[in-house]
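quick q for whoever's on today - can somebody do inverse folding on this one?? i tried earlier but teh output was garbage lol. tokens:
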């Protein structure tokens, strides 16, 4: 869990349980020793281990009991001060009190409504009405608290836990999972981006070669002019000035020569370069076509990675890149090991199914296998995006369903990121 390994620190500590103050030595001193020797980020995680006792002490304080567990992060006096002084409220709670009073969390002018809202919150705390709550945005946890939060409206979901211990376990487990997924996504994005940029550079170089090939007639003309002027040439000449009878007016033309070659060999060299350029044009045309197709594919992969939502999405794309040779295969491939992923599924206002591909393979499958002849296929024009299938079951779809499917096609495309 910690970002640094503290082998020497741990090795120097005596074994103790969380309630080790009953074992004959001071657990608070041991905790202080740990906090002094770890990083600031890891110190926050150490304090979380004892957050349970803070909750226990807060409930005890609000119920008028004198019991106080010293293993908490706050003394009894600090907890009392936290409750007495509104300026010490956590930002999330302070915004929630303001939001409940005025319907918005950034209201600036205070009146009796604010104090009524604060009194209601204080009554909730005094009554020990704590509900362990995790806040989710876009399916991911981003904060937790001890009661329902309404300030975010529909942009945030409140999910309750059985107790604070379960809340903390769930919250940090999901956060850690999200970090792993994020890291995996970053590695794949880097791989796909590097491959895309490499193909782009290759295409630019090939386009320059292709442009040079198109000017190959100049090489043929040089060879023919040398052949026509063999009678007045000598070995060792550096250039030949001849009349270019291929142009109107027969202007003079300087033709560079290789001093090591005879006039006939110089002519043959130009004809050979001409034939090579003619062959290269055909080969480069094929290579450029393949290169541009590969570039479009890699750009679509980068777009899919930017919109991937789960670890399974990244696993599917990793498999696709591995099969394509962009990622080296590690160990033996285990067929059937990964579970088959499914496309995103939505329902229109009229109840029609809308399927959205998560990657290139799913896009192809939606188009060629799952789609029926009466279904409607949607895709963004001239930019990369997911294939969208509006399942009509043979009926004429309503305009709203078509509009919603089109919105999904635009959302899951490059248009989403501009």
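ok took a stab at it. sequence:
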């Amino acid at each position: 869990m910690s970002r640094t390994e503290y082998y020497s620190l741990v090795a120097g500590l005596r074994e103790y349980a969380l309630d080790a103050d009953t074992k004959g030595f001071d657990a608070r001193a041991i905790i202080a020793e740990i906090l002094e020797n770890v990083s600031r980020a890891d110190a926050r995680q150490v304090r979380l281990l004892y957050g349970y006792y803070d909750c226990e002490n807060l409930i005890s304080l609000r119920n008028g009991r004198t019991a106080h567990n010293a293993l908490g992060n706050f003394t009894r006096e600090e907890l009392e001060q936290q409750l007495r002084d509104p300026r010490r409220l956590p930002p999330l709670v302070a915004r929630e009190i303001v939001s409940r009073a005025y319907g918005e969390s950034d209201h600036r002018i205070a009146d009796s409504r604010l104090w009524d809202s604060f009194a209601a919150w204080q009554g909730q705390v005094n009554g020990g009405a704590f509900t362990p709550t995790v806040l989710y945005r876009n399916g991911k946890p981003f904060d937790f608290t001890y009661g329902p939060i309404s300030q975010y409206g529909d942009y945030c979901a409140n999910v309750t836990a059985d107790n604070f211990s379960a809340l903390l376990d769930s919250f940090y487990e999901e956060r850690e999972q999200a970090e792993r997924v994020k890291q995996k996504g970053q590695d794949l994005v880097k791989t796909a981006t590097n491959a895309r940029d490499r193909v782009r550079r290759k295409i630019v170089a090939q386009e320059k070669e292709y442009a040079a090939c198109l000017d190959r007639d100049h090489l043929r003309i040089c060879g023919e002019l040398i052949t026509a002027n063999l009678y007045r040439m000598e070995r060792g000449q550096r250039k030949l000035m001849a009349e270019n009878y291929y142009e109107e007016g027969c202007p003079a033309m300087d033709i560079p020569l290789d001093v090591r070659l005879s006039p006939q060999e110089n002519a043959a060299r130009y004809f050979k370069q001409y034939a090579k350029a003619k062959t290269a044009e055909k080969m480069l045309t094929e290579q450029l076509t393949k290169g541009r197709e590969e570039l479009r594919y890699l750009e679509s992969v980068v777009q899919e990675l930017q919109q991937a939502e789960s670890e399974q999405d990244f696993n599917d794309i990793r498999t696709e890149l591995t099969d394509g040779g962009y990622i080296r295969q590690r160990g033996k491939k285990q067929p059937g090991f990964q579970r088959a992923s499914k496309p995103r599924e939505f329902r229109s206002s009229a109840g029609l199914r809308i399927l959205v591909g998560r990657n290139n393979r799913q896009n192809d499958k939606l188009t060629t296998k799952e789609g029926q002849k009466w279904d409607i296929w949607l895709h963004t024009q001239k930019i990369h995006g997911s294939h969208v299938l509006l399942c009509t079951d043979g009926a004429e779809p309503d305009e709203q369903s078509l509009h919603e499917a089109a919105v999904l096609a635009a959302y899951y495309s490059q248009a989403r990121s501009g």
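fwiw The mean pLDDT is 80. also DSSP finds 13 helices and nine strands in the chain. so keep that in mind when u check it
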